[in-house]
Amino acid sequence: MGACAALDGLYRRCKYGGSYYMTTSLTKYNDWLQELGMYPEEVVKELVQSFGVSYPCHDNMMAQTTKTLGGLVKKIPQIMVGNFGKFEETPFGIPVKYLKPVISIRGTVNEFLCPPRPHGYDKPEFPKYR
């Protein structure tokens, strides 16, 4: 959402000149999605044909991404082979598998240094990395 707001500001600056102040809110975004209501029946059918899962209404991004990725993996299982890393020890008490960064730049380290953590798990301070 922030990237879309920035691109909108750049577009307006190029087209109309001036400066633009943008705000984003995940809560407001989800409220807006609920206001949109249900998809038309033909759209739901097309989504089921494309991804093998039903999208009856506009959904929050995480749920939508999870459904889409699940449908994509069913259609093309090899798409997710070999691109994962894993944190064995996590605050959740179970290993967490994650998608590795999609790009690499020679001479740089591009990796996740710590596992995901529940909200409020860390002290309110900047983490100390290796």
Features:
single chain, 130 residues, mainly alpha, two-stranded antiparallel ribbon, 4 helices, 6% strand
Description:
The protein starts with a helix and ends in a 31-residue tail after the last strand. It is 40% helix and 6% strand. It has helices at residues 2-16, 26-36, 41-51, 61-75; strands at 84-87, 96-99. The protein has 130 residues and is mainly alpha-helical. A hairpin with an 8-residue loop joins strand 1 and strand 2. Strands 1-2 form a two-stranded antiparallel sheet. The protein has four helices and two strands, in the order ααααββ. It has a domain at 1-36.
Number of contiguous helices: 4
Mean pLDDT: 83
Please state the overall shape, judged from the principal axes of the Cα atoms.
extended
Percentage of residues in helical conformation: 40-55%
The biggest sheet amounts to: 2 strands, antiparallel
Q: Please state the CA-atom Rg, rounded to the nearest Å.
A: 20 Å
In percent, how much strand structure appears in the residues? 5-15%
Structural class: mainly alpha
How far apart, in Å, are the first and last alpha carbons?
31 Å
